[in-house]
Write a structure and sequence with these properties.
disordered N terminus; 30% strand; mainly beta; globular; 2 domains
């Protein structure tokens, strides 16, 4: 990580004076920070969701879970608004959360964000938790279609976040092109909304251009850069600059270039 939470990160550009940017992240109190109640397409899958914060880490706890579904399955999180009629194979899911075996379900299950070590410091950009059927192949070798989908949603809940932003006073301003951050900016309502990276751009210089620490730029682009992944800038990548648009920037999928 380039930014230093709780400290002052300074960035010097060729031909410019040192510009100090103060990291403004606040800690997340331990406890329940999000809730939801599962509903299903046939009314036979239910459960209660809690998102629990502890020492800056997050765990999804699904309790009182019951279902009539017995096939291969997957628990997932999406950063998009989702309805029961949508199909999971249409790239709706940002991350998959599994039990020890995909086809095993229990009355109470916990899912750590994330088990591969890429935790997010503020997961409130996720909007939906869902239980979906894992894609299967029929005897003809073709994907099986259930309710019009290869990966139909069995049950889901929107997440009601009570957690406040870790950057409640985050502001973004464009200081103008500089070495390592020469791309164009799109504005909405007079504020920087997105940035198109240029050749030879660097993550730290882009953050500096907009008065941000590297951590704050990561915060604004959580899908592209989970918090424990060293951020990099790629040519012709659209980066989000709006705190209200964290889950919907054009470069939201890993590997977007």
């Amino acid at each position: 990580m380039f930014g230093l939470v709780g400290c002052t990160a300074s960035v010097s550009e060729p031909g410019s004076s040192t510009h100090a940017v103060v990291a403004r992240a606040r800690p997340v109190p331990d406890g329940v920070v999000g809730t939801g109640s599962m509903t299903s397409w046939n009314g036979k899958t239910t459960g209660t969701l809690r998102v629990v914060a502890k020492s800056g880490k997050f765990t999804l706890v699904l309790s009182h879970f019951a279902t009539d579904f017995t096939g291969e399955n997957l628990f997932v999180l999406s950063d998009e608004p989702v309805t029961m009629s949508l199909c999971g194979e249409n790239n709706l899911w940002q991350i998959g959360l599994t039990t020890k075996q995909n086809n095993v379900v229990e009355p109470t299950m916990s899912f750590v964000l994330l088990e591969d070590g890429n935790e997010w410091s503020d997961p409130t950009f996720f909007t939906t938790f869902a239980f979906v059927q894992y894609p299967t192949v029929g005897s003809d070798g073709q994907p099986s279609i259930v309710r019009g989908c290869q990966q139909p949603i069995v049950a889901m809940t929107s997440i009601d976040w009570t957690m406040k932003s870790i950057y409640p006073e985050l502001t973004v301003h464009d200081g103008g092109p500089l070495s390592g951050a020469k791309g164009p900016v799109t504005s909405k309502h007079g504020k920087p909304f997105s940035y198109l990276t240029a050749r030879d751009d660097t993550w730290q210089a882009i953050a500096h251009r907009f008065g941000l620490t590297s951590d704050e730029l990561v915060y604004l682009n959580p899908i592209r850069h989970p918090a424990s992944t060293r951020p990099e800038a790629y040519t012709d990548q659209v980066l989000n600059l709006s705190p209200a648009n964290r889950g919907n920037s054009e470069s939201r999928r890993p590997g977007a270039q």
